[in-house]
Amino acid sequence: MKVSVSQNELATADADFVAIGLCEGEELPAELASARGAADAKGSFKKLAMIHPEQPVRVLVAGLGKREDLDAERLRVAAALVAKEAGKLSAGSLAWALPEGDDADALAEGIVTGTILGAYRFDRFKSKDAEDAESASLDSLTLLGPESISAASEAARVCAEAQNRARDLQSLPSNVATPSYLADRAEEIAAAHDLLSVELFGREEIAAKEMGGLVAVSQGGAEDPRLIVLRYENGGSGETLGLVGKGVTFDTGGISLKPSAGMQEMKMDMSGAAAVLETVGAIAELGLKLNLVAVVPSTENMPSGTAIKPGDIITQYTGKTVEVNNTDAEGRLILADALAYAIEQGADRVVDIATLTGAVMIALGSTYAAVISNDDDLAGQVEAAGQETGELVWRLPLHAEYKALMKGTVADLTNAAPKRKAGTISAAGFLEEFVGDTPWAHLDIAGTAWDVGREYTGSDASGYGVRLLTGLARALAG
Ligand code: BES
Ligand code: ZN
Ligand code: MN
Known about the structure:
By secondary structure, the protein is an alpha/beta fold. It has 14 helices and 18 strands. It has two domains: 2-145, Leucine Aminopeptidase, subunit E, domain 1 (3-Layer(aba) Sandwich), CATH 3.40.220; 159-477, 3-Layer(aba) Sandwich (Aminopeptidase). The strands form three sheets. Strands 7, 8, 9, 10, 11, 14, 15, 16 and 18 form a nine-stranded mixed β-sheet that branches. β3 (48-51) and β4 (59-65) form a beta hairpin. The two termini are 29 Å apart.
């Protein structure tokens, strides 16, 4: 979407329609007060009313609720509703008058993010009928506001568009978005930016590296796995942030097969990978001053005659042994290798993001992702980025007793806690075995990656994590 900032007045805005916000108990601007329909304009949050002054011809009034509650998140929601209205009207361009507020940059971010995410649709597999072919889609947003919001608006555009690309990856079916497809996408991202480089490893190279977790999970499937490594160098001799994303392109559960009802959703088990890949692209596009190493282990989890079986013992990249008592707890096996690899490759702190446990959905629904960390500073930075972006995280505790749940009977570790105790935390306790003393934060996004139902995330792929991780990188950058 084309995003620009203009100092035009409402009446001279050049767009198919103009949106303005209205807070509860406040009046429309004087020039709109006598417009046809003005009496219907209400400030209650999420209420929309189209009014018809003389110039411009159409103004959509979006209720923003109480003035004291006005923040970026409210505007993301309101802007998404406006963008959906634009879709119904087949409007190709929209101007938004920036509301009054203390933090103009934050409000501008909210409008840009909400518009771009709210206008998103995944329709590339739908045959087009004549009507679709005619209707324009929203491709231009003009913010009516001071020049000073340009940088914040542009940054918001970059992040929201990266998030929509992550949503595409999530939505693509597993016969399209294979591990090699994700690898191709990583190559494309790296090719677009000078400071980015990529390395890709296939089945044999993964085996030669003795990444026993990724070998074990991929051995049941015909689709070639990939270890994807992206590097971004723009921080001189400063620290390196590691990002690790779970890239299971389809999770059947393996021999510990999942029930068939709803299994089609498991094409989204690469949502962490999608978030990491597109975050790296956004960071490069923004030119943030830091060093990054991103590691994405990608594979299918399939049952077959060559698949890993319950009770099999594997040796992870670090040399630790694991009894695979449940082949459906595959994410932690591939993340363990990838985390250790990221640290070996120079990450001074590392964040992993993964659709790791169904249990996180029971604990936190789709509103918060879980964050589990061995480092209060890093956890705090992730929480702050969550508040700023609306991609919320809630910290869950680590405790030696949770780690004890992951002790193996005949190997060092088991991949599944007995009696499914503390599903989300015990999975993190397993991962902690592979990060040593490196500051680490684990994000479990099984609840927030899909079907969030917020106005700007929709009811399928949310792209969760792109704005959170980019926000974190921005906070860490010099
Ligand atoms: N990919 C799933 C987790 C998941 C569930 C993601 C629902 C998205 C929606 C993961 O690999 C898994 O199967 N986890 C198991 C772990 C258990 C066997 C210890 C789970 O949560 O049931
Ligand atoms: Zn999985
Ligand atoms: Mn699984």
